[in-house]
Amino acid sequence: MRIILKYTRGERVKYISHLDLMRTMQRAVRRADIPIAYSQGFNPHPIMAFASALAVGITSEGEYMDIVLSVPMSLPVLKEKLNHALPKGIAILDVMEIDKKAPSLMSLIERADYKVTAMGIDWNRALTAYGEAPEILVEKQGKRRVTTIDLKDSIYSIGVDQENQETLHLSMKIGSKGSLKPEFVVETLLKLSGQDTDQWEGLGIPASIHRTGLYYRINGEWVTPLFRKKD
Amino acid sequence: MDKLLLDRIMSQVTKPVRYMGNEYNMVEKNSNEVSIRFAFAFPDVYEVGMSHLGMKILYHWLNERVDTYCERVFAPWVDMEEKMRESEIPLFSLETKTPIAEFDIVGFTLQYELSYTNILNMLDLAGIPLLAEQRTKEHPFVIVGGPCAYNSEPIADFVDLVTLGEGEELISELLDEYKKWKGSGESRRAFLERAAQIPGIYVPSFYDVTYLEDGRVESVKPNTNVAKEQVAKRIVHDMDQVYFPDRIIVPFMDIVHDRIMLELFRGCTRGCRFCQAGMIYRPVRERSQERLLEMAEKLVKSTGYEEVSLSSLSSSDYSSLEDLVKQLMKRFEEKRVALSLPSLRLDSFDKEYIQEMQKVRKTGLTFAPEAGSQRLRDVINKGVTQEDLVSAVSDAFESGWNSVKLYFMIGLPTETQEDLQGIADLTKEVAQCYYRADRAKRQKGLKITVSTSSFVPKPFTPFQWVPQDAMEQLRKKQEFLKRALRMKNVNYNWHDPETSLLEAAFALGDRRLGRVLLSAWKKGAKFDGWSEQFNMKAWMEAFEENNLQPEFYAHRKREKDEVLPWDHIDVGVTKAFLWHEWQKALKGETTPDCRIDCSGCGIRRLGEGLC
């Protein structure tokens, strides 16, 4: 039985790395006695895959993981047991069964949405500069070499929150070919609009980055991994 | 605590998860509802401290008390410390981010001598006066415990009291006394006087130390009626009854020992003469198989850990080890929990059950012959023979292991060139065993790692009178071994002996070293156990400025009549026994395992029915 789980990662635990998170999930599954399937071979590990790694310091309300069970289990029971076994700060929001042969989450996900909240930044100024620039060339560090790309190609949409001027909405391209980091995008925008980045680097100003969702396209329409779920 | 500021700082340092807390099984209490706030301080970074079994036990044990909230604090890494000082954030607890100075009691565990500067540094970061005599009622009591506490003289100036021996019962009594004192309005000294009457508590300020002209200690005497001439350690009698937590914190971060540690028994009966643990943790007290199985079940369930390690000074000496392992395997094989046996003695290596363990997970095998020749092994009373080693590694190779670690010490008393050559010869022999092993059964790619550590004489061992080798001598020996071990498939690990000199000075040191410690810390010494942080220059200057030499402590041969700085502490084993063992060592005579034949070490004096 193959299952997708949607989970959150809150303030309380945001400093864990992706590896830490994987380990945490593995142990929670064991505590909850969930009959997860193991891989074959010399060093068997639980069959668990993640849609996208979340960087240290970033919170999220919509992450996804994909597990395979060796024995079928009731989904509401799985959700409850797992939530009970997880540390506070990580919670399973939803679960759904999927086809065993469905492609991996990581190969599907194309877009990540973020909310960046920072004090003392003029987002509107940054957006104006963004709009005026025909292209914004940046260097991207690859495994072997540095390439130059247009930052604008990586952004699906960008805008200031209607109610809260301190919050920027950012919708970015992500994929298995590598993605730009949201902090990097923001840093570049600040530089572009002549705002002080000394404080920004390493999140020196009070700022928080929160991922609001992960998406992919089906027939041109953006969906989340749980879109097939019937309520 | 400015949480916003703390958050900003954490996002600028490496591994901020070290300072985050919020792990599964972390204890959360309302600090307003407790009478005692206890900060358990481990003087190293999170990932080192969280591997320590003692802390896990005491943390959960103290939190069983409704009147107490025990929180943890570790040494912030250098980058975090810098930011904290810059932003004026004091040292804080992990659970509630409360400044440590607001706690009632701060307890440090003394695991190794090179952690002492970190203790001073943490006190300073917390805003607690370093010198005990400067603390007022506003400040917490600073207490210490752990293996190095048996000779706490070098840090005596900085601690209010020392707990000797096993903490479980002792700490409860101490906290009960503390609660009474807190409500009484009495002075700080009054609490110390109350505490001094609890068996196992040593209050350094209640003793005066005098010195002879030549620098040796003349006497250590109580300066008040409340203090005993000799303070004996506490022993827990019933290992099955004593507390062991049902649930332990599961760190998010990858820590040094990330698994459940099942304490099989305390103490050791082998009597290896260099080993302090073997002497100070006597007598041997085992846990029953039933209790261990119960503990293992509960812990696996409450933590989800993938590995259980059977932990004790000499695990293979546990009386029903094979059976225990079989039982554990039966219960956990389905759950895919791996078992590991960290310390295996060569002379009780059983191929069959090792093969059993291999089924779930294979870890590299480590053996500690410690000395390269039978003669020297007899001197140190490590009764392991070449045949034992050959047989063990041959079995291992035929069972599919291809990686073996061999631990030795250099600088042992009476050591000669032949003994060093013996290390190389033994290594060659181990390689030969591999090549002799059945090709069909052995795995490809032999890897032998030889590690030598520099011998450090420790208090309360038969070798406490032995001078350590000078650094130059040790370096020469390492050079010799580097050449002698230049063999295919062999890797030789060694460390510069500078830290060993310092370790010996502090292990065998007296109260005057407190000044040296303070000076060294002021010069920026910290994380001395980390090679990239260790600052020998600061230490040498610190010694010089205080008119002391590390060689006086480390390189001096002591005689029978010398008053040792720790003679007023009683660990059970008597000084007479230790001297007798030292004399036997010089003659190359061994002492049998005391399960076979009691050697009268003296531990029985400390209680009825022990041993």
Q: How many angstroms separate the termini of chain A?
A: 20 Å
What's the arrangement of strands in the largest beta sheet of chain B? 2-1-3-4-5-6
Shape of chain B: globular
The chain pair with the largest interface is: A-B, 30 and 26 residues
Number of strands of chain B: 19
Identify the quaternary structure here: heterodimer
Which structural category do the helix and sheet elements of chain B fall into? alpha/beta
Q: Name the average pLDDT of chain A.
A: 89
Helix content of chain A: 10-25%
Number of strands of chain A: 11
- Average pLDDT rating of chain B: 93
Helix amount of chain B: 25-40%
Coarse shape of chain A: elongated
Structure write-up:
The complex is a heterodimer of chains A (231) and B (611). Chain A has helices spanning 18-31, 75-85, 105-108, 123-132, 182-192, and strands at residues 2-9, 48-50, 59-68, 90-98, 111-118, 137-141, 146-150, 155-160, 167-173, 207-218, 221-223. Chain A has 231 residues and is of the alpha+beta class. In chain A, the strands form 2 sheets. In chain A, strands 1, 2, 3, 4, 5, 8, 9, 10 and 11 form a 9-stranded mixed β-sheet that branches. Chain A has a two-stranded antiparallel sheet with strand order 6-7. With 611 residues, chain B is an alpha/beta fold. In chain B, 35% of the residues lie in helices and 14% in strands. Chain B is built from 20 helices and 19 strands. The termini of chain B are far apart. The chains are: A alpha+beta (231), B alpha/beta (611). The interface between A and B is medium-sized, with 30 and 26 residues.
